[in-house]
Every structure is written in structure tokens, then in C-alpha cells.
Write a structure and sequence with these properties.
Length: 116
Amino acid sequence: MNDRIRQLRKALGLSQQEFAARIGRKQSAVSYLEKNGSTATEQNIKAICSQFSASETWLRTGSGGMFVPGEGRKKELLEAFGQFAPSLQDYLVKSARELLEAQRGMSADGEGLPLK
């Protein structure tokens, strides 16, 4: 798992210090986690997977993809949403609901022809 933590950090383009700050740890803790033979706690594993949308299966075993599909986009959207003023958040929610309603009316191929 130690090598996979290092691979993840490098894939994200983060230093140990930046990675540590994002998961609420110190740089020395990340250095320890990346050291062969060290053990990652459940708390550290959960923090890493949650913060970076990493696949817990991949982190633990090496099988599957490094990231949970689609989770990064959701997190990015939520982070952006949180930066808007409340009035704009209301507008975005209303617009999203309208888009969902329009999507429901599209044909199965998504070409925009309403289903009848």
C-alpha cells in the first residue's frame, strides 16, 4: 500500500506537504505512510480516499483503477457551488432542476427529440 500512496500523491502532482495538508496530517505522517513496511490506519485510508476520490480497493490491493469514476467531478462541482453567494446557489439549484426535467424529455440517444 505504501507504494500506491506514493503513486497517488505523484499522480495528483502534490508534494508530501500538500498531500498531508489536504488529509489533515503532517508531512512526516505522509513520509511514514509512503515508507515500505509502514502501516496505514483505517482513518488515514478513509481520509485519503475521501479527499482525493481514490478507490479504496485500489489503495488496499492494487486492483482496479486508481480513482472512483465520476467522483472527482462531483467533488469539483460541490467545491465550486460552495463558493457562490446564496442567491446564486438558489439560481443554480433551480437551473439544475430545469436541466434534469429537460433531460427526462430527451430521446434515449440524447439528440434532444422529446419522447412521446
